[in-house]
Amino acid sequence: MAGILTSGKVKTKINLSKKRVAIVVAEWNEDITEALYEGAVSSLREHGLKSQNIIRKNVPGSFELSLGGLWMAQDKTIDAVICLGCVIQGDTPHFDYICQAVAYGVTEAGLKTGKPVIFGVLTTLNKKQALERAGGKLGNKGEEAAITAIKMMVF
Predict the structure, then answer these.
(1) Active site residue 47
(2) E strands along the chain, which residues?
(3) Which candidate in 9, 94, 112, 128 is catalytic?
(4) Is 139 exposed, middle or buried (0-12, 13-18, 19+ CB in 10 A)?
(5) Are 62 and 36 in contact (CB under 8 A)?
(6) Crossing angle for the helix pair 141-153 and 30-46, nearest 10 degrees?
(7) Which of 135, 154, 133 is nearest to 42 (CA)?
(8) Which of 9, 45, 81, 148 could form a disulfide with 117, with the two C-beta atoms 3.0–4.6 Å apart?
(9) pTM above the 0.85 mark?
(10) Which residue positions in the chain have pLDDT lower than 70?
């Protein structure tokens, strides 16, 4: 198989059935993050990862994804980590601080461990936009995060 992404599918030269992926899911905006999780798992399974090799860990909110992602990436048995969350803008600048901190933290987790730690966090202006990106008319960003993890594992 070639290492090419085609219509959301990745053909790889390696056997992904032995790979282990952790998915860290924020509990805040649960209806959105559950849809992202389902999309990610579906995509990973479609590409050959075994269900028992997909490890889920929950954190209270998107802010905690950075530390949860780091902890999972530090596990020597984990090949990649997908961090899934949803931050919806409110009336205060809290949105900006959380989004910036999470983006930085997820990046740092990957750099510190040398493993793919994928940013699968929606940062939307409203819930409608989030729903559109969690299985709605704009697809499922959880699936896209899983494809990114696969591509980085075969890099």
Answers:
(1) no
(2) 4-6, 9-11, 21-26, 54-59, 80-88, 117-124, 134-136, 139-140
(3) 94
(4) middle
(5) no
(6) 40
(7) 135
(8) 81
(9) yes
(10) 1-14
